[in-house]
Design goal:
The protein is an all-beta fold. It is built from 2 helices and 22 strands. Helices cover 2% and strands 40% of the residues. The longest helix is centred in the first third of the chain and has 4 residues.
């Protein structure tokens, strides 16, 4: 490895979803560059010989590639705001954050985040599905199944954003989500993934110490979001993103990780400190040369190798958020390591 910069992987949702602050450029969609695309909060699914990446954007941004190097834009998923948001989140404008995609029981299931008040827990996670990701297929059709979970101002000290679905070793579906304040949550889903399983089972997986009083909802500490769970060699690895996204070259986003033998935790970092107490081993951080910061990652096994997808704030591109795809390797003790110099594509 060239730089041997270890990056902890924290699933990043782009600072509470991509727009915690008005002065950020996350609502701006730069000109699409095929070999160096703008993306925020990337997740991936492969169908046939094609990779599909989904990210934050109007109606959910989608692009595809045959080789992970050259990309093309695909149609957005929602032409207008999902119908359920009219009642649940009045004023929501269809800028959808941090999707997650998983193939389960013959369909592709997409979980997506809607927030009508960026930086506040006035947010909800929705669910849609399609039998195929190929827009040219006669079977291509996204069906929206509505709201899965919602966070409410004055009631909840977590945000219903940054969803990540995973199937455990027993075939049970779970959904991780959350950010800031009281941290990352995990809940059981019904077998069709359409709702929370009853009786509800909630777990807190990670949080960072905060000096705030409940319901202050300040963005000055306790920054943790963008959870992504990945099973490797007997452990569940919880990737998260620490600190602030969505500020261009002023971002200080970074990826951190912990692991557990049980999907419900406790998750411990490399030195054994619990993520519930603010622990997390940082495995990815800006290098100060090309990348100011990076985060909101996802992880996939492709042809026998693990790869990390994330977005990075490019110093050479005036702080624009660019796609990072890099092989994820494991050290002798089973902890993830990446080398940004080995980034696939430009």
């Amino acid at each position: 490895m060239k730089n041997s910069i270890a990056l902890i992987v924290i699933p990043l949702l782009c600072f509470l979803g991509v727009a915690q602050e008005v002065q950020t450029n996350e609502y701006r969609q730069p000109e699409f560059i095929q070999d160096n695309p703008f993306i925020h909060d990337p997740v991936m699914a492969k169908e046939g010989d094609t990779y599909y990446v989904f990210g934050t954007g109007m109606g959910i941004f989608v692009m595809s590639s045959k080789d992970l190097k050259v990309w093309k834009e695909e149609p957005q998923i929602f032409e207008s705001a999902p119908e359920w948001t009219k009642e649940a989140l009045p004023g929501f404008g269809n800028h959808i954050w941090a999707p997650d995609i998983i193939f389960y029981k013959g369909e592709y299931h997409l979980f997506y985040s809607c927030n009508a008040k960026p930086g506040k827990p006035h947010a909800a996670i929705g669910h849609a599905s399609t039998p195929t990701l190929n827009p040219e297929s006669p079977n291509f059709k996204w069906t929206d199944h509505g709201k899965i979970v919602q966070s409410i101002m004055g009631r909840d000290t977590w945000q219903a954003i940054d969803a990540n679905a995973i199937i455990d070793d027993e075939g049970k579906p779970w959904l991780a989500f959350g950010s800031f304040w009281d941290g990352i949550k995990l809940v059981r889903l019904t077998d069709d993934m359409s709702s929370l399983k009853w009786p509800q089972e909630w777990h807190t997986l990670a949080r960072r110490p905060s000096n705030q009083q409940p319901y202050e909802y300040l963005l000055t500490d306790s920054q943790v979001e963008a959870a992504f769970l990945y099973k490797h060699d007997g452990y569940y690895y919880l990737f998260v993103s620490f600190d602030m996204c969505c500020r261009g070259t002023k971002s200080d986003y970074k990826i951190a990780v912990g692991r557990s033998k049980s999907i419900t935790g406790p998750y411990l970092d490399k030195v054994g400190f619990p993520m519930l107490g603010g622990g997390g081993t940082v495995v990815a951080i800006g290098d100060g040369k090309k990348w100011a910061a990076l985060g909101h990652n996802s992880v996939y096994n492709i042809d026998g190798k693990d790869f990390l997808f994330a977005h990075g704030y490019s110093i050479t591109d005036n702080g624009d958020s660019k796609l990072i795809v890099v092989e994820l390797k494991w050290d002798e003790n089973g902890w993830p390591v990446i080398d940004l110099d080995e980034r696939i594509s430009k």
